[in-house]
Amino acid sequence: MGIPITADPVRVRADVRGTVQGVGFRPFVYRLAAELGLAGWVRNSPGGAAVEAEGPAPAVAEFLRLVCQDRPPRCHIASITHTPAAALGATQFEILPSDRDGPAAVSVPPDLTTCPACLRELFDPADRRFRYPFLNCTDCGPRFTILEAMPYDRSRTTMRHFPLCDRCRAEYEDPADRRFHAEPVACPACGPRLALWDPAGRDLAAGDDALRQTAEAIRAGRVVAVKGLGGFHLLCDARNEGAVAALRRRKAREEKPFAVMAPSLAWVNEQCGLSAEEVRLLTSPEAPIVLLRRRGTAGVAAGVAPGNPYLGVMLPYTPLHHLLLADLGFPVVATSGNRTDEPICTDPREALDRLGGIADVLLVHDRPIARPVDDSVVRVVLGREQVIRRARGYAPVPVPVGEPLPPVLAVGAYLKNAIAVATPGGVCLSQHLGDLETAAAAEAFARAVEDLPRFVGVRPVAAACDLHPDYQSTRYAGRCTMPAIRVQHHYAHVLACLADNGLRGPALGVAWDGTGLGTDGTAWGGEFLRVTDDGFERVAHLRPFRLPGGDRVAREPRRAALGVLYELFGPLALAHTHLPPIRAFEPAERRVLGAALANGVNAPVTSSAGRLFDAVAALVGLRQEATFEGQAAAELEWAAEAARSDEAYPFGQDGAAVDWGPAVLEVIEDVSKGVPAGEVAGRFHNTLVEMIVAVARGVGEPVVALTGGCFQNAYLLAGAVGRLTAAGFEPVCHQRVPPNDGGVALGQALAAGRQLRTESSPCA
């Protein structure tokens, strides 16, 4: 609708939806209106932001244009609608108190890394916020981790506990100040404070002295628990083998790599070498952990990422971290502040109980954390970002899905759990919640399920969940008063991948992961699904085999190898004692497992690509027992990267089953000949790529979606994308939604929403 050109003032009402709260939108609108000489007001609303502007018609038209064109950097406008209003003869522009009535449609702002202007103040001895670890402005600082309810106002954040002093109040109310309506604004006189505790909770120091003593403790090789933005980190000197070993021992984390917080971008470049995209990610407002290929093993202790050619690195992203790393001048391990398989700690008193046996001292503060938010993890594949763990900086920004969905709560998977809520602005995907394997994790999950719908102002009409009846998330959905809609695991993966790329289908989905319950009651994991708006068809799958020991196979790749060998040779598999996985079992274990396989007892059938990776890793002698999920497959990928073979093994197809048997037989032959593991790994990866291309040709869908945890494998993903593109297909893969189970809730919400929409259609 255009603005009529008249001599008289006109007034327009504009309703803006998107990420417009907590990103400096209201101050921006205020200043823009002042520059154009307009009167009126702006305020937050449950739907986003509402604006009324009054003045000469050309100025009002220019105002509406510039609102979209010159919006703040972190602001995303999903839609803006404007309607004429009666001119009131107003003479000033105001920021009004938020409107709390009406349906919610707002995008919740994520937490933002410290901006350059605040950093200059932080290290300026003449500034009143010099070395103050909680400074922020409209362009940076906490958002999601302090926000208790929308709309985004200080009174609805955990900063409500800290009344503004006169000087902060003056900044907050000054349109010319960059802290104009910055809700978390604070200073040493009125804001949160630091304290250093011993493991019994006794005060050791306060304020800046606490920070300096923390740095001294780290220099001395001690482990420190630090309360940060969305929870605690466990920190130690990343160069100190003894400190790293102590942290591993106390946290019961044998070999899984630790993340490192680096003192500078220059240090990261020296250790890893950086592409332009990796630099962008490290220095972005999201400031995630970025997985980087190492130049060598110098710079950090070997125990940080044992045997791993990659290093997970992030830069300081809060004033507290900037101060600490500037004081230290060297990298620190910065791992989640939790015990293994438990959620991250957020409360200092809780941390005394859960982290007291791990940390030597605790650096705490008195700003409450509204919800736990871990660090995000990304890597660059094919020159672009792939999010592996979606948390700080990314969550809970909605994923646009291009279709209206009923309000659905999706409770996600069992491992790498995240939940989702369908809203008018898209599907709001929560932060990473973790594996639901402990009572503490189940409690954190239940809190998140209660929190997210209330937070975004949606009352769900159904709960979408996995088919597997024993998942903690599925059980929760079954206990809800609303209907539970069960969604097949790999179908959810494919829908999530398509949505991440702005697509709906039809498409061929290649969903490869560990395991997920299939519609036939077996454990799927190597799936080819044709997906349309009406659902999915399983058009092909990897040849099934048994998993002796069930869930134990995920931590014992040798068991996966035994299952593969049994599928090929039957009972004679146990006689292949020249192969590493068979030798890895004691004779008594072989007899027990052989009987289990023969009788199908605790040996479920699977088509899992992930377990097939494990099997080959064991066959080539890389890993017989794993200390963390995905370790064997990762080592097989690294071996393949080092060798870079162009050859592939043969494979077959028996009906819908894509037969890996011929390939594994040649793997065994190569192992027997002493062919290096890297060459075998490369050929095996190439074989899987050729399988994908062969099935794609047979199905004939132009779009091929590559999804599931196996496509965190950069070698596999790059090979598949390259070969599919060369064959004339349009391959798509994950970007800002994880390919692993962290993205499943998005697909569940889509599947359930479509089902509900179809059932309510007059034509249904």
Helix and strand arrangement:
Elements: E1 10-19, H1 25-35, E2 39-45, E3 48-55, H2 57-69, E4 76-85, E5 93-95, H3 116-122, H4 166-173, E6 194-197, E7 203-206, H5 207-219, E8 224-227, E9 232-237, H6 241-251, E10 259-261, H7 265-272, H8 276-282, E11 289-293, E12 310-314, H9 319-328, E13 332-336, H10 348-355, E14 361-365, E15 377-381, E16 384-389, E17 398-399, E18 408-410, E19 420-423, E20 426-429, H11 439-456, E21 462-466, H12 472-479, E22 484-487, H13 489-500, E23 507-517, E24 523-532, E25 535-542, E26 545-546, H14 557-569, H15 580-583, H16 587-599, E27 605-606, H17 609-619, H18 631-643, E28 652-654, E29 657-659, H19 661-673, H20 677-699, E30 703-707, H21 714-726, E31 730-732, H22 744-760
Parallel strand pairs: 2-5, 8-14, 10-12, 11-15, 18-21, 21-22, 23-30, 25-29, 30-31
Antiparallel strand pairs: 1-3, 1-4, 2-3, 6-7, 6-14, 8-9, 9-13, 10-13, 11-12, 15-16, 17-20, 18-19, 19-20, 23-24, 24-25, 26-27, 28-29
Task: Supply the key terms.
single chain; 764 residues; alpha/beta; Alpha-Beta Plaits; DHBP synthase; Tetracycline Repressor, domain 2; eleven-stranded mixed sheet; seven-stranded mixed sheet; 22 helices; 31 strands; globular
